[in-house]
């Protein structure tokens, strides 16, 4: 591989940017295509888009012959806002499903190592916790504290940055008030439909464990079906 291409690919990986290394199997020439690029005029545009959605590397055929597409996608992340009972059930399930999980809650009575052993726990306000690991299109956000002072900021940031899943706990009445606050904060109303509220699949979940199953199901559905997300 050309050193400059390898360096660029490593930079993209470090910055959690999706990219595909295209290798011509006939002459060995290589090029890098980023998901953020406008590759609509590329001869492989349709195949590149499909590979970005699937995340699967493999051979395909171009006019010049066979090419290999080496797909590099950031690992999907789940950021849970709120170290509550639902989160305790959701963390191990999400990790089994292959998600990198972070739990954020400034309330140190809830955010303890005893309640979240082995998980990435940040006992801080979301505004501070997300500075070092900002949200992106390959991140899901689930806000479950019921406290606007904690939930609102990460939810608005998730909408602005295009997170592939944005979910919030609360009744429809609670959600209505939430949208009023978001409107007053200047958030574009057309983004509101992206919020999954009440959070999770509609499976009649009642207990924290059942709600966690519903939330994870909704996240996986968004991960695997949303155009341009981490699918």
The oligomeric status of these chains comes to single chain
What topology, given as strand order, has the largest sheet? 7-6-5-8-9-10
Q: What is the structural class?
A: alpha/beta
Alpha plus pi helix count:
7
Question: Helix proportion of residues, in percent?
Answer: 25-40%
The overall strand count is 10
CATH architecture title of the largest domain = 3-Layer(aba) Sandwich
CATH top level label of the largest domain: Alpha Beta
Low-confidence regions: 227-231
Proportion of strand residues: 15-25%
Shape: elongated
Taking all Cα atoms into account, the compactness measure Rg is 20 Å
Q: How many domains make up the 3D coordinates?
A: 2
Order of helices and strands: HEEHEEEHEEHEHEHEH
Protein name: Putative xanthine dehydrogenase subunit A
Domain XdhC Rossmann: 78-218
Pfam families: XdhC_C
GO molecular function: xanthine dehydrogenase activity
Features:
single chain; 231 residues; alpha/beta; Rossmann fold; six-stranded parallel sheet; four-stranded antiparallel sheet; 36% helix; elongated; disordered C terminus; xanthine dehydrogenase activity
Describe this structure in words.
This protein is α/β, with parallel strands linked by helices and 231 residues long. The protein folds into 2 domains: 3-72, no CATH class; 77-225, NAD(P)-binding Rossmann-like Domain (Rossmann fold), CATH 3.40.50.720. The chain has helices at 3-14, 45-54, 85-96, 126-129, 148-161, 172-184, 208-225; strands spanning 19-24, 30-34, 58-62, 65-72, 77-81, 100-104, 120-122, 139-143, 165-168, 195-196. The chain is elongated and about 60 Å long. It starts with a helix and ends in a 6-residue tail after the last helix. GO terms for molecular function: xanthine dehydrogenase activity. Residues 78-218 form the XdhC Rossmann domain. InterPro entries: MoCofactor_Util/Proc, XdhC_Rossmann_dom. This is Putative xanthine dehydrogenase subunit A.
């Amino acid at each position: 591989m050309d050193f400059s291409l390898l360096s660029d690919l490593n930079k993209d990986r470090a910055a959690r940017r999706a990219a595909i290394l295209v290798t011509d199997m006939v002459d060995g020439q290589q090029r890098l295509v980023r998901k953020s690029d406008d590759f609509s005029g590329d001869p492989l545009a349709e195949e590149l888009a499909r590979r970005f959605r699937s995340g699967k590397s493999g051979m395909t055929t171009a006019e010049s012959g066979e090419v290999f597409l080496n797909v590099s996608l950031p690992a999907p992340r789940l950021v849970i806002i709120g170290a509550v009972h639902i989160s305790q059930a959701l963390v191990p399930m999400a990790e089994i499903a292959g998600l990198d999980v972070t739990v954020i809650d400034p309330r140190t009575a809830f955010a303890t190592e005893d309640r979240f052993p082995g998980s990435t726990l940040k006992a801080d306000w979301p505004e501070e916790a997300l500075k070092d690991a900002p949200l992106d299109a390959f991140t899901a956000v689930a806000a479950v504290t019921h406290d606007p002072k904690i939930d609102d900021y990460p939810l608005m940031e998730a909408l602005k940055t295009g997170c592939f899943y944005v979910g919030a706990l609360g009744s429809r009445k609670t959600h209505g008030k939430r949208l009023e606050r978001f409107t007053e904060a200047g958030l574009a109303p057309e983004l509101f439909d992206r919020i999954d509220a009440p959070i999770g699949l509609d499976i009649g979940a009642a207990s924290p464990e059942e709600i966690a199953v519903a939330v994870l199901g909704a996240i996986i559905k968004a991960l695997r079906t949303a155009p341009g997300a981490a699918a």
